[in-house]
Design goal:
The protein has 16 helices and 2 strands. It is mainly alpha-helical. 19% of the residues are buried.
Length: 329
């Protein structure tokens, strides 16, 4: 049954049924030969980790400028699942999400922890509800509904969070709907967002990567003048509406800045770009990374980076203009 994973399809995209997943897990526990092939094999025709491993090695190279061997990656993942004579971590898989999506989260966390321990990358701060923020407003209402339904099922904050992130009601509308004072609204919003962030951080659904951002670390490389620079660029390209007109008049500069970042990440996801181009554009446009550093990271010349960045800017500008026209009216 595990041979259903074929034709080079990326494993985490597959909807493998429970019986097939159970067979994979049982064979990992009982069949050393299968276990060896699963973790260290290179076949793309079976449910092995070769494509997952390739994606995560690319992630390390692009985001941390670190290259490790396939065997080292596989060993770290194997050790994360096999602990002191038991498959204790593997036994925590609960079938609620795709097996390979779950495995990807386990692998990334284990590899980053090991690299930080070996001082290959800086120590990674543990994510908590307090040092993360939600990036739901830049996501589709369908995705927001899915995340809230799954993570806050049965919670007293479920409907309240739906009002904010799915119905996207104004603060005054929500206060009227629930008969709240502004102070009660702010308290409920804080508690609801905290509950959702806590649920996401405890989950193995993979939504954490999509909808949570670190409050400080993710954007530490942006210029402090980014918001002003971005607004000036938009004024030049799109007209006289300010960012506050679109994102909300009562937002602080920091809140507007975060919404701009989320918007740019969201738009770049929708572009028909490969991961290299998406990485290059985000690093240059959002994070203001040096083109010389990017050239080294990507194994290209400075001239190539500059030319490609200009081309990507030309391609994304109409998308941004369409978004601006739809939301600034």
């Amino acid at each position: 049954m595990y041979n259903n994973c074929k034709n080079g399809i990326i494993p985490e995209s597959l909807k493998i049924n429970k019986a097939a997943v159970d067979e994979i897990i049982d064979r990992l526990k009982a069949d050393p030969k299968f276990c060896q092939e699963f973790f260290y094999g290179t076949s793309k025709q079976n449910c092995y980790i070769s494509q997952l491993r390739y994606g995560e090695l690319s992630y390390l190279a692009q985001n941390y400028n670190v290259v490790i061997s396939e065997d080292f990656f596989s060993t770290i993942l194997y050790q994360a699942l096999w602990s002191e004579g038991t498959w204790s971590k593997l036994d925590t898989y609960n079938h609620r999400n795709s097996f390979f999506a779950w495995l990807k989260v386990v692998a990334r966390n284990a590899v980053l922890e090991r690299l930080a321990k070996d001082r290959i990358i800086p120590s990674i701060r543990t994510r908590t509800p307090g040092n993360t923020r939600l990036a739901l407003l830049s996501k589709s209402v369908e995705m927001c509904q899915l995340v809230i339904d799954e993570q806050l099922k049965g919670s007293k904050y479920h409907d309240f969070m739906v009002s904010i992130y799915v119905s996207r009601l104004a603060k005054e509308q929500i206060m009227e709907k629930y008969g709240m004072t502004e102070q009660e609204y702010q308290h409920a919003k804080y508690e609801g967002e905290y509950a959702l962030k806590d649920a996401l951080l405890r989950s193995t659904s993979g939504y954490e990567e999509e909808v949570l951002r670190n409050k400080t670390c993710d954007y530490q490389s942006e210029s402090l003048e980014f918001g002003a620079d971005m607004e000036e660029w938009i004024r030049t390209k799109m007209g006289e509406n300010s960012l506050a007109d679109v994102f909300g008049l009562n937002l602080t500069d920091e809140e507007v800045h975060e919404k701009v970042i989320d918007l740019l990440y969201s738009l770049s996801v929708k572009m028909d770009w490969n991961e290299r181009d998406r990485f290059l554009w985000r690093q240059r446009f959002i994070h203001n990374t040096s083109p010389v550093k990017l050239a080294t990271t990507l194994g290209r010349t400075r001239a190539w980076v500059d030319t490609r960045f200009s081309q990507l800017n030309d391609r994304i500008e109409p998308t941004l203009k369409r978004w601006w026209t739809a939301n600034a009216a």
